[in-house]
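Just scan my protein:

. . .
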Amino acid sequence: MDMIHVKDIVKSYGRLPVLNDVSWRVKPGQFWGIIGPNGSGKTTLLNLISGVEKPDQGEIVLGGKPLASYRRKELSRKLAVLQQDGLPPVPFLVREVIEMGRFPFQDWRGKESDENAVKLLHEIMEKLELKELEDRPLSMLSGGQRQRAALGKVMAQQPEIVLLDEPTTYLDIRYQMHFMELVSSWQREEGLTVVAVMHDLNLASLFCDRLLVLQEGKIAAEGTPDEILSSETMEAVFEVKTHIVSHPDVGAPQLLLKTEKRLSINERG
């Protein structure tokens, strides 16, 4: 059974078509990256899968059940979303923010249904190296620390599906790798299904099992990073010329952009 089944989706904003007849299947436990030029419909597709927006035509099915039939808390147990800006610098303490992820498991009085929840939250903060920060407000944290707190909140939901919308956009290169390694580790340990909209194609190649390429609201290609990240596809979709090399540690394809030859300082002489 598919974990996510997108069936013949059409979505427009006014007269502007964004997605046109998109069909796509995601198996349980897969890690997909959605890539494509700006305006190709990546975030819109993610919003439709999360239920934030509704398609004009077509249907989305999660775990064999139509998305539209899920109640709010039921959907929150099934699926969690992490946006690119994570959490704003508000006065809430790190511990309080992570506890908010337990909302799907609380009754109308806010009482937790799982007696192991306290242990779970402790383990999440330890794993994300947030224990020493638990009593600090988000407003005192760096962007990388806030994004880790946002991930902790998502982890506390214990979802089966995790949607990430450009989660490393505002992070420096160190925190980009750290964040993706944390997500990848969590995904493997829990057998999660992860779908991430990504701009950094090299990161996508390192961490995603499969890639979906959107172009002008349609699926241009889908497959493994080895199948998708070719010079021909990059030129056809992104209109850039590239060299494709293998990562020396893991063999994943990595992109180098071609550029005009520039004279060295000695050649300028």
The chain has a mean pLDDT of 91.
